[in-house]
Amino acid sequence: MSSTTSKSNRGPLLGALLRIIYQANNEKLERWLATSGFDNIQPAHSAAIQPLWDAPEGARITTLARAARITKQSMSALVDQLESAGYVERVADPDDARATRVSLTARGRAFGRAVRAFGRSLEAEWAERIGTERVEELRATLELLRSSVVRDDA
Fold it and tell me: Given CB 3.0 to 4.6 Å as the disulfide criterion, which of 9, 62, 95, 132 pairs with 127?
């Protein structure tokens, strides 16, 4: 067996590395949420909050589900929870009277600002550990992969 083959069979693959980092950050997010004043939010709610942050005009459930890569039914359940907690509201869609859009409320926008500040603090922690340049390279690489995956799925 060549040294290249044996090295490639050791250690976690990229997917596992991404999962491990995601889980570690998710644990930090859960601890932050418990003390943030937004303790009725769960990490899973970010599947709705994040795309709404980037869509101030609101978005349909189907659009949110597609962005989060989950089913429409799962997104509906998340939106129901967020709506009952006051983070989002359903409003009439100005482009289609039969449809509704989901948009962030003032509380939802406050959460968005707070969680983004938390995320920036995690990125700063990473920069202290591995250097700002590597964090920026990682961001650029992940953005390239994201755009490629989204384009391939269209």
Answer: 132
* C-alpha–C-alpha distance, residues 79 and 46, integer Å: 11
Main-chain phi, psi angles of 86, to 5 degrees: 85, 15
Type and span of the H or E element at 135: helix 132-153
State how far the Cα of 83 lies from the Cα of 44, in Å rounded to an integer: 14
Among residues 16, 63, 49, the alpha carbon closest in space to that of 119 is found at 49
Q: Which of 106, 37, 48 lies closest to 72 in space, CA to CA?
A: 48
Q: Is the pLDDT of residue 139 over 90?
A: yes
Domain residue spans of the chain: 18-153
CATH value of 18-153 in 1.10.10.10, 1.10.10.60, 2.102.10.10, 3.40.47.10: 1.10.10.10
Query: Quick check: 101 pLDDT over 90?
Result: yes
* 100 Cβ contact partners less than 8 Å away, ≥ 6 residues apart: 60, 61, 90, 91, 92, 93
